[in-house]
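Lab notebook, bench 4. The sequencing result for the construct came back, and we need a structural model before the next group meeting so we can plan mutations. Quick request posted to the team channel:

Model the 3D structure of this chain.
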Amino acid sequence: MSTKGDNFVRLAKARQDNICKQFKILGNLANISNYDYSEAQVNALFSTLESALRAEKRKFKDGLVKRAAKEAKE
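Done. Here's the predicted structure in token form:
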């Protein structure tokens, strides 16, 4: 695997683990013994998260399209 590929795998794993940990911490807010929230607040929270995830996923898809176009030219 190339150095760029090795870096991707190493960093992606670490960042994925960090994001999953942060999701778990976010999930702690669901504890109704400690927090009070409305359905609208929950919907707004997850709408924001889903929008951010879609935007980042789009970057990866765009990168794959660009790579395919570059390889097709070669």
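Residues 48 and 54 are 10 Å apart (CA to CA).
Will bring this to the meeting.
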